[in-house]
Design a protein that fits this description.
alpha/beta, ten-stranded mixed beta sheet, six-stranded parallel beta sheet, globular
Length: 858
């Protein structure tokens, strides 16, 4: 019999154990092992059954057991110590507080998903996990950040696999009252309600849930409330669910509603208003329009407000392909961007922000990433290679500039070590190396023997084997109407066999089935009698991606062969809980995307932090960190004739590495059965690579390279009644009006009839400024090695100086072309080329390319 309503009744904890409720209410427990040990002590088996979620756990614990512990002075003292530790953690100065006064007051960090713990399933993959790690590292460093997202009642989806290998999706509904969340309330106790005006006099309402992620507050908007119509209650039903209009409503709510939720929260809590807004991908781009509307309400024009918004906005792109960007029908967006929703904002001004470069403004799709870049003066990709890819992919926004000039930098993603490092590795660091900081421990210390380390690694591998068997047995029982799992499942995998892991989302470019290119060769590798290899594989395909589902089906059917099923397994329903066992249990982490389509790929980072070596295509983070001690590079067959040939060549390289390099090294043992060379590489990976992969390194970079500059620029723009924003908007309008007629009319050179190293190239350039002054432009020679394709390599630039005409001041704008002169010293031999260009110049511009205006000598 089905209930007509379900809700969660929270446990009543004895007063002596009130510390447990306080500790459960802050998600720091998701990465703080001492707190997790405190809860586990209550009932270890139930703790695992409740998936290490203290809120659910306390609701299931036998009250008699809590009463027993409340009478146990030692346990009560332990709980009080942990509570005191949490309170100290929340209030003590940390790294950020040591930076002095010139720092942001608050950063608002917007993301469509946050992966913090499996108990709060508000993530689908890498974007959400990265966002969760960003919050955790910001908390550890004391960065004053507010997270902003949506609360999805059914999260992403739960995955099961049918007997024929097809992915099936379920959407279990979450009860927020049973999660570590609270409602944002007004002083009178009523819930804060965020409202968005919709077409046809409709309104979308949302309440705001708060989660405490250490020192960070995460705000999540939820439309499943009675004040909405039945249709609008479902706006936040599923992550990345529904069609175009449904997704548009989600992104309007995230951006516009999220900005309003931040205003409500800061006003109620006394937290300083954000001076920096960070968009984690383009999904939250509408927050810029909401902020523009607010400034227009304070008396600024759209152009002036845009300068203010851009100054304090950071945009991070995670996609390396245009197909990964949200694009909406222009007419649909126009229908929603009304003056009721955004007072003072003309729809044409708002729509122009999303027009794709080179497209007809009247018909162009509305591109969320393009809008995000136009609303942000500070932008980055998520690895060095992805930064290069992004500069090329978005280069049309800055026409006429080379990719190197495009103002998109890069900060390589990192992972939060306390979340992803296995407790066994933490335990040996504490007991033998004298530190709980696994990320910076001395893993090469003689205090830790190779044998002891290898035993720890085997325990982590055994843990994975047992977990995999348990998951496979549960999946079998679910598939076969409760029947008992067959005995062979209890024998899958072997804790003493080389274990390769592969787990991630399953779009086609990640090539889940590359390993199946030559099935017979893979079989031979798996079943080698002397050096066997086993694979543990997991991943979800988007519900609408049938091609991705077919890849899963192909792999599952391969793994179902009786002679292989103990050597290769596919684990259903990949999530944080599974990942925290999978990464530590693997010896090798496999990653074989189509290069350069992996923006970063942090799963390999998490594996490395748990003593795994990487076996990967040179893509994402691996392209900048690969080293002999850290794993192996799968060569990319970039010159292949087509995709089929490329896959065949790269699969052959993968087999070659497994057969002749990876497996032999793993099974090369000393007299005590320890693979000494393998362990040396793993310990070097932990000692030298792991510190570079941490989310603390990543967040420090965001603070120093993006947040601090953004806060400084925002402060400069808003000072004195937004004087600089008004001035820059007026100057920009004037320059844009004149620029079509700005040209480098003529260039003369001399001094190099027979050029040798050390000679000086003398230049005279005549530039038509069309009424602009010399202070409005920079004229420069751009030079470097001349390549066969008529491009320049190793580019350098040198400014040319205006020649003063008669007695006129240098800043005056004479009639006719203006003369600029300068010299370039030829300091190296070889092919040489140069050109002359003019670009806008203003002290408040961050780069010469910022306005996307350039005039180059023809």
């Amino acid at each position: 019999m089905k209930p007509i309503r379900k809700f969660t009744v929270r446990a009543v904890v004895p007063g002596a154990l009130s510390a447990l409720e306080e500790l459960a209410g802050n998600l720091r427990w998701s990465w703080h092992e001492p707190t997790r040990r405190l809860f586990e002590h209550i009932d270890p088996m139930l703790w695992r059954t409740c998936e290490r979620d203290p809120v659910a756990f306390l609701g299931e614990v036998d009250p008699a057991r809590l009463d027993e512990l409340a009478a146990d002075g030692g346990y009560v003292e332990w709980a009080e110590r942990e509570r005191a530790g949490l309170r100290e953690y929340l209030t003590e100065p940390r790294w950020f507080q040591s930076l002095g006064a010139q720092v942001p007051a608050t950063i608002a960090y917007f993301s469509p998903e946050f992966g913090i713990t499996e108990a709060l399933p508000q993530y689908s993959g890498g974007l959400g996990i990265l966002a969760g790690d960003h919050l955790k590292a910001a908390s550890d460093l004391g960065v004053p950040l507010i997270g902003v997202g949506l609360f999805y009642r059914a999260g992403y989806f739960s995955q099961s696999i049918s007997p024929d290998g097809w992915q099936q999706e379920r959407y279990p509904v979450l009860d927020p009252d049973g999660l570590p969340l609270s409602v944002l309330r007004n002083p009178d106790g009523s819930p804060v309600q965020i409202t968005l005006a919709l077409p046809d006099d409709a309104s979308l309402h949302a309440r705001v849930w708060k989660a405490s992620v250490g020192r960070i507050t995460l705000l999540m908007l939820d439309t499943d409330i009675p004040t909405n119509t039945d249709a609008l209650r479902t706006v936040t039903d599923r992550l990345y669910g529904g069609g175009g209009e449904h997704r548009l409503l989600q992104e309007l709510l995230l951006g516009i509603g999220g900005a309003r939720a931040v205003r409500a929260y800061t006003a109620l809590s006394g937290t300083p208003a954000p001076d920096v807004f960070h968009m984690n991908e383009g999904h939250a781009g509408f927050l810029g329009l909401e902020r523009i509307a607010t400034y227009i309400g304070e008396g600024l024009t759209f152009a002036e407000a845009l300068q203010l918004v851009r100054a304090g906005t950071v945009f991070t792109t995670h996609t390396p392909v245009p197909a990964g960007i949200d694009r909406f029908d222009r007419g649909l967006v126009e229908r929603y961007l009304t003056s009721s929703l955004l007072p003072g904002v003309e729809p044409a001004d708002a729509l122009a922000l999303g027009v794709e470069p080179g497209a007809d403004p009247a018909t162009s799709a509305f591109n969320m990433a393009v809008m995000g870049l136009r609303l942000a003066r500070h932008a980055n990709g998520v690895s060095k290679l992805h930064g290069q890819v992004s500069r090329r992919m978005f280069g049309d926004l800055w026409p006429g500039f080379d990719a190197d000039d495009v103002p998109v930098t890069s900060i390589t993603n990192g992972v939060h070590a306390p979340t992803w490092t296995d407790p066994a590795l933490l335990g040996v660091a504490e007991s033998t190396l004298g530190t709980g900081d696994t990320e910076h421990a001395d893993w090469r210390s003689a205090a830790l023997s190779d044998g002891e380390f290898w035993n720890v690694k085997r325990r982590m591998r055994l843990q994975l084997v047992e977990d995999a068997r348990s998951r496979l047995a549960a999946a079998w029982t679910e598939q076969h109407s409760g029947s008992a799992a067959p005995k062979w499942i209890s024998k899958v995998l072997d804790p003493d066999t080389l274990t390769v892991g592969f787990a991630r989302r399953v779009p086609t470019y990640k090539r889940l089935t590359l390993m199946l290119q030559d099935p017979e060769r893979l079989k031979a590798i798996l079943t080698d009698p002397e050096r066997p290899v086993q694979f543990v594989i997991a991943g979800k395909s988007h519900p609408a991606d049938d091609e991705g589902k077919r890849l899963i089906q192909q792999l599952v059917q391969f793994a179902q062969q009786p002679e292989l099923r103990d050597r290769i397994v596919f684990l259903p329903d990949y999530d944080i809980g599974m990942a925290q066992v999978l990464y530590p249990g693997c010896d090798v982490w496999l990653n074989n995307p189509l290069r350069p389509l992996e923006a970063c790929g942090t799963s390999g980072m998490k594996a490395a932090m748990n003593g795994a070596l990487n076996l990967s295509i040179l893509d994402g983070w691996w392209a900048e960190f690969a080293g002999d001690d850290y794993g192996w590079v799968i060569p990319s067959a970039d010159a292949a004739g087509d995709a089929r040939e490329r896959d065949a060549l790269e699969a052959a390289a993968l087999y070659e590495l497994l057969e002749h390099h990876v497996a032999p090294r793993y099974y090369e043992r000393d007299g005590d059965g320890v693979p000494v060379e393998w362990v040396r590489r793993v310990r070097n990976t932990l000692a030298t690579l792991a510190p570079e992969l941490g989310a603390d390194r990543m967040v420090r970079q965001y603070v120093e390279e993006l947040y601090r500059p953004a806060a400084e620029h925002a402060a400069a723009m808003i000072a004195d009644g937004a004087r600089n924003a008004r001035a820059l908007a007026a100057w920009t309008a004037r320059v844009r009006t004149s620029w079509p007629n700005v040209q480098v009319a003529h260039v003369e050179s001399g001094g190099v009839d027979s050029p040798h190293v050390g000679d000086q190239l003398q230049l005279r350039a005549y530039v038509e400024l069309d009424g602009l002054s010399a202070d409005d432009v920079t004229v420069e020679v751009v030079y470097g090695r001349s390549r066969a394709d008529d491009t320049l390599d190793a580019v350098r630039r040198a400014p040319l100086q205006p020649v003063q005409v008669t007695d006129a001041p240098a800043e005056a704008a004479p009639s006719g072309p203006r003369l600029y002169t300068g010299t370039v010293t030829l300091d190296r031999a070889g092919a040489f080329g140069y050109t002359v260009r003019a670009v806008p110049r203003h002290p408040l511009l961050l780069s010469a390319a910022e306005l996307g205006l350039v005039a180059v000598a023809g």
